[in-house]
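Here comes a specimen:
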Amino acid sequence: MNHEAETCVESFIEQYLEYLAAEKGYAENTLAAYRNDLRQFYLFVVNTRPDITSWARVDSLLLQAYLLDLKARRYSASSVARKVAALKSFYFYLTQRHVLAVNPTLDLDPPRVSKTPPRTLNPEQVTALLNAPAEPTPKGLRDRAMLEVMYATGLRVTELVTLQLTDFNAAARTLRVGRGLQERTLELTNAAHTALEIYLARSRANFGAPPDSGALFVNPRGEPLTRQGVWLILKHYVAQAGIEGAVTPHSLRHAFATHRLQEGSSLQDVQRLLGHAHISSTQLYNRGQATALTVRPKSDLELHEP
């Protein structure tokens, strides 16, 4: 494939990603995953059939060869399924835009993925975690508010760190999350609202953040918290609460969804709150009881620490 043909073929991937961002409102992490998956397939095509000059010349045999290559490289079933989904979505876009007359991915079947309910925190563990930031310091008040908001809303960590001060409506007790087609308004619990009000009144200004603008949750330099920063904060309090096992920011999202369904909320309501595009993603939380993590009892020494 000559350089001009490569550029033309590759440009359709960027056009598709721009479409997902502008018209579908996809988050940066989702766009990055699509870019990586489509770029991987593009490189496979270039290396396997250098003579291909357009996406229309990709046929079912080449697609099957790609799946066999992924299998040989020991990709998990869930990873292959995600890559197939990206290809199907991309080719649907190309046919909808009349770039192609035929969609070769229509009969491309992803591997079956066994979906099991995610490991989650039980209510007692959540309580222990939320109570862990007990010190009324600026950092303690911020962290308590952050954890309360995460559990009260089921936010993705990316959504959390991109929240702006103006997204909080104190009078309505709500948070505005996302933008465009992905925007949704989430109600806060009394505990989350109170913790957030205390953080804003007594803590956020101590970090040097502007009083009327900027990120809702900030670091000691007044800058937005990062995904890694949230993970490290959570890791600290998980250990302090004596919770064993892998706990990530997504664990509070799992707990939110699981507990809402156990309390009687409908799948449709939880789907809306989580911002799931497909209800099948939400149904995962309704397949039996999620596996709970364990809590390590504190030692006498730990119980008497200041």
User: Anything to note?
Assistant: The domain at 3-96 is CATH 1.10.150 (DNA polymerase; domain 1). The longest helix spans residues 3-23. The chain has a mean pLDDT of 85. The first strand starts at residue 168 and ends at 169.
